[in-house]
Amino acid sequence: MDVLLTGMLTDTERSLWWGAVIGGFVVVLAVAALLTILVMEVRTIEERVVKVKATLQQAKANTDDTALIGTTAKGVEAVLAEGLEHHLFLGRVLGKVRS
Predict the structure, then answer these.
(1) How far apart are CA 22 and CA 14, in angstroms?
(2) In this predicted structure, what is the pLDDT of residue 38?
(3) Cβ distance 39 to 31 under 8 Å?
């Protein structure tokens, strides 16, 4: 068969065929490399999505008790009001005690 191909192709045509074969291998290797990079990037994205999902679930768990924020705020306001009353009272009494 090589004899048939040798007789049919000129040296230029044979060189072009070898160039096409080598070029095809280079293209196949480049595609394989790019697909490998793509698969690695997809795995990285997948891992990070899992981490983000876990973080969001943790944030949800941290905010499950937000209904208590209003009650806590009222309690803090009551304590501050009481503290202000004591402060004002002590300010008036302290002036009388010192004189």
Answers:
(1) 12
(2) 97
(3) no
**pLDDT digit string (tens) for 51-62?**
999 999 988 887
Please spell the DSSP secondary structure of 58-79, one letter per residue.
HHHHHTTTTHHHHHHHHHHHHH
Q: How many CB atoms lie within 10 A of CB 9?
A: 13
Residues 28-51 pLDDT 10s: 999 999 999 999 999 999 999 999
pLDDT score for 4: 53
The pLDDT of residue 29: 98
CA distances from 60 to 22, 50, 51, 52, 64 (A): 57, 15, 14, 12, 6
Give the closest residue to 17 by CA, choosing from 29, 25, 32: 25
| Cα distance from N-terminal residue to C-terminal residue, the chain | 125
